[in-house]
Amino acid sequence: MCRSIKTLREPYTSAVTDAEIEAAALQYVRKISGFRAPAAHNAAAFDAAVAAVADATRTLLAQLVVRGGQSAASSAAARTE
Q1: How far is CA 71 from CA 2, 10, 25, 44, 76, in A?
Q2: Fewer beta carbons below 10 Å: N end or C end of the chain?
Q3: One-character DSSP codes across 9-31
């Protein structure tokens, strides 16, 4: 796949930012579409795909269970308390 997409779950990353999720989504869509930047007539589809992949990534990270039976989101919340 794309070497510039980094792993966003624990224990590889302790806090994931929206910018990191968006960057990974953008790289994924670029890779599968074959476009670094789409033509104007494909821009809406490209942007919608990036948003959908970013949303799916947020959902996945929130639902993953990591060591000890906690979801990634709940373990992140526990660290900030």
Answers
A1: 26, 10, 21, 33, 9
A2: C
A3: STTT-SS--HHHHHHHHHHHHHH
- Measured in whole angstroms, the distance separating CA 30 from the mean position of its chain's CA atoms is 14
- Provide the whole-model pTM: 0.74
Collapse the DSSP code of 77 into the 3-class scheme (helix H, G, I; strand E, B; otherwise coil) and give the result: helix
Task: State the CB neighbour count (10 A cutoff) for residue 5.
Answer: 15
Which tops the pLDDT comparison, 29 or 64?
29
Cα(46)–Cα(8) distance, integer angstroms: 22
Encoded amino acid at 25, one letter: A
